[in-house]
Amino acid sequence: GVKEKEQRGVKRPIAPPTIPEPLQEQIQSNFIVVIHPGSRTLRIGRATDTLPVTVPHVIARRHTQSGQARHEDAWLLREGLNKAESNEQRQNGLKMVDQAIWSKKMSNGMRRTPVSAEQARAYNCQIRPAVLDTSSRVKWTNTIHQPPFLVGEEALYVNPSDCYNIHWPIVRGQLNLHTGPGGSLTAVLADLETIWGHIIQKQLDIPLKDLKYYRCILLVPDIYNRQHIKEVVNMLLLNMGFSAIIVHQESVCATFGSGLSSACVVDVGDQKTSLCCVEDGVSHRNSRVCLAYGGSDVTRTFFWLLQRAGFPYRECQLANRLDCQLLQHLKETLCHLEQDISGLQDHEFQTRFPEAPALLYQVRLGDEKLQAPMGLFYPTTFGIVGQKMTFLQYRSQGDPEDPYDEHFLLATQSKQDQSSKSAAERKAVSRAGGGVGDLSGGSAAPGGMKSGEMEVGPAQGEGLMGAAGEGEELSSAHLSRKSAIMNQFESKALGLDKAILHSIDCCVSDETKRKMYSSILVVGGGLMFQGAQEFLLHRIINKMPPSFRRLMDNVEIITRPKDMDPRLISWKGGAVLACLDTTQEMWIHQREWQRFGVRMLRERAAFVW
């Protein structure tokens, strides 16, 4: 029966057997908590729940001293928007967007007639709101009892004049470390622990003292910071007290959640977009790309376009979190990628803020609704200057606890003799077909790029981190060339369509590439626009390498597998993972972690740690 089935995939731990192994009990899925922490949203629930609890991933912390300066982490604002060239970049991006809109015909064969912002502006500038109700019936969070912290929705509605700091512990998929208040690693980890613990107690009804009976599945980005993941696992096992954990990649979980065995996963989040090709539960290392933009950049661009069109809610500000929420809502309800919707249209929206009347606004809009989401394909439109926008596979900082980290592997490798080295180099160059392709896969030696920079390349194989000891030692000339190509590549923001083509192109065989073209899976909440599927298909087919053009009838973009909400698919996949036979050998138990630490991740993780 089920019991034997669960037993089958059990592999004894490789760790020395000094700790008696627990009897392989039948693990019950209702005692497994799946955590998918996003930059904007936390999704968390039991593996048996149909839907996770979804909350804003934010915390308000009460000031400890009176007269303390207030700090609030930004949401729609980010570094690089106020540079001298920002506005010029925005305008240039918009020109490219308009050109693209004009060049693609509507389904009736006609070209769209562009609508200028001026046409809407004259109308919008004379709009005054109508009062729907003298009270908005929305209140600030009640802090009369001075709670030390508030989480989620309650944190969003803390009065800005109240003595609380607002922290979003994750930004663009990474821990939100900064030099301001609450920006240290310790503080950010404490925020995660407090938010997760609060939701587990209040919404999942699990007392924290009972977590010793529970296990946890943690979803992480494909390009991750090892040090950060190690600290979060530490927090979950040792501070919160879960009995065991599995760490798995969002992309692989997305394929589990949608029931696909292989896919090019395109995860468009609020602040980052990550892509990678997944084949039978394995994420291909070289195909991983992370773009430092997402839904919130579309929202901010939409606001800029609304202002050009004379947006009638004139007090709206990007620094105000309730205005940000309204703008996100307007983007989600008004924006689209439908070529056929054109001309000027009238819309209405309401504002309901605490201590203010409920107001109804009219607004007339034209192309703004299409231009904003197209920023994902022409990211210069976002106006972000001087920031690294494209990340490729991470190389880790050395970790003293992990004797097999890459610096150690490099040191042992340099002892290999020269002849095998030159043979390997020749092989790598011929395999990759020269050009950018002669960058060897996995890792580069210290001294090439700063530790923690990323990897580029349609490079074949896993390089150093793949088959142990097979990698090539790289000459310093090769490294500086590689470094130059990397930097050139990463300082530019790749449009979403180009990033997809890049990711698929990094797969080793043509057969895998074909598989990926026929299964491009879009998840996350950042591309949920009407018309997105057809629009993306059109862009991919037009930009595919000529050698694959004959396959274009097989290109498929999947935006709602099994009619599921794309925002929940990765979480769902984590819940599916909890029930798979093969999962049994991936659990890392609290005692093992206490004893062996991060080495357990190298041993048990389902991906190359």
Automatic annotation (TrEMBL):
Pfam families: Actin. One of its GO terms (molecular function) is ATP binding. The keyword Hydrolase does not apply. Residues 413-422 have a biased composition (Low complexity). InterPro entries: Actin, ATPase_NBD. Residues 1-22, 413-473 are annotated as: Disordered. This is Actin-related protein 8. It comes from Tetraodon nigroviridis.
